[in-house]
Design a protein that fits this description.
The chain is an alpha+beta fold and 332 residues long. The chain folds into two domains: 174 residues, Nucleoside Triphosphate Pyrophosphohydrolase; 138 residues, Nucleoside Triphosphate Pyrophosphohydrolase, CATH 3.90.79. It contains six helices and 14 strands. The longest helix is centred in the N-terminal third of the chain and has 13 residues. The mean pLDDT is 91. GO terms for molecular function: 8-oxo-dGDP phosphatase activity; 8-oxo-GDP phosphatase activity. Belongs to the Nudix hydrolase family. Keywords: Hydrolase. This is 8-oxo-dGDP phosphatase NUDT18-like.
Length: 332
């Protein structure tokens, strides 16, 4: 089994493959202007979507002047020296009065290189639902609401409809039998200074095939990596920079149409401590070659298509790709 396969198994097991080394480092990535400082150069957002046994969703009523009286999922920005898990637990308790234990990430969203939102689900462990008499600057009240009432805004105006697909995802997760659910994934506590990306690109990932993995072969075999500049308007830019280095691209790919299809997020790494030195994030993204790419692009001399030889890893990758068993990824 190659070192790249070992690293991928670690990621799928909720571990870090080790210190991040950037293969394709864009100009300016090492400048002081490009490293992440929470609430200053980048905004990391957490969101909690919790359902009770009756299928009702936990909602809070906004207290902020700009959206006072509207309803939303408990959410907010990470504070300095906080992990994502600590932040979402704090936001849920501040805005709803309830404590909860995060069980897994459901969605990761990116808007350029300066905004990331991670959505968690989990189990309520205690606390008391905030009433109107306990209104404060965090929220006016909290309530368990039927999904139908939220969607139709029945006596509860919604702050923004971007929560609808998040709620739908939570309902789908709750109704899926345990044996068919994606593995639970929580951010791994690993320090990063920048917005880093690790690419898992597969070809031939279907039942009865031996998937091949794009691997950087020097100095030792590992998964390809790059960084995202804070000023990048889209994640397409760093991925294109990486693919142009790893593959011999032709046709539409040269103009920015990537020859790959997104499956989702396999892992997230973040620590947030100490503030200003470890506020960055690393996303491990799973892609497959796009439909129609019957003849895969040739690799450049530092990269190679390597067969996945480990049977456990091969089975997990095929199951993940065919059944979309990973964290949903949305690019704004």
């Amino acid at each position: 089994m190659s070192e790249a396969e070992t690293d991928l198994l670690r990621i799928l097991s909720g571990e870090t493959p080790g210190p991040f080394v950037c293969d394709v480092d864009p100009i300016g990535a090492d400048s002081d202007k490009e490293h992440v400082i929470a609430k200053k150069t980048a905004g990391w957002i957490v969101c909690g979507v919790l359902l009770n046994d009756q299928g009702q969703v936990l909602m809070m009523q906004e207290a902020k002047r700009s959206c006072r009286g509207t309803w939303y999922l408990p959410a907010g920005r990470i504070e300095p020296n906080e992990t994502f898990q600590e932040a979402v637990c704090r936001e849920v308790e501040e805005e709803t009065g309830l404590t909860f234990e995060p069980s897994t990430l459901l969605m990761a969203e990116v808007n350029g290189g300066h905004w990331v939102r991670l959505t968690f689900t989990g189990t309520v462990t205690g606390g008391k639902l905030k009433t109107p008499a306990e209104a404060d600057g965090e929220s006016l009240q909290a309530r368990w609401c039927s999904v139908q009432d939220v969607r139709t805004e029945n006596d509860m105006p919604i702050r923004a409809k971007d929560i609808f697909p998040i709620i739908d995802l939570a309902v789908q997760h709750q109704s899926t039998p345990e044996s068919q659910k994606p593995p639970c994934v929580l951010p791994v506590l690993q320090a990063h200074k920048f917005v880093s990306l690790r690419l898992v690109l597969l070809k031939g990932c279907s039942e009865g095939t031996v998937p091949e993995l794009l691997v950087r072969t020097t100095p030792t075999p590992h998964l390809p990596t790059t960084r995202m500049l804070l000023k990048d308007w889209s994640i397409i830019l760093p991925l294109l920079r990486l693919l142009r280095t790893a593959l011999v691209l032709t046709g539409d790919a040269l103009s920015g149409k990537l020859p790959i299809q997104l499956v989702g997020v396999l892992g997230v790494e973040h620590l947030g401590k100490p503030h200003g030195l470890a506020d960055g994030i690393c996303l491990t993204l799973l892609y497959t070659l796009a439909v129609g790419e019957d003849t895969p692009p040739e690799t450049t001399h530092e990269y190679s298509w390597c067969p996945v030889t480990n049977e456990e890893l091969r089975a997990r990758l095929i199951d993940t790709c065919e059944n979309n068993k990973c964290i949903k990824f949305k690019v704004h």
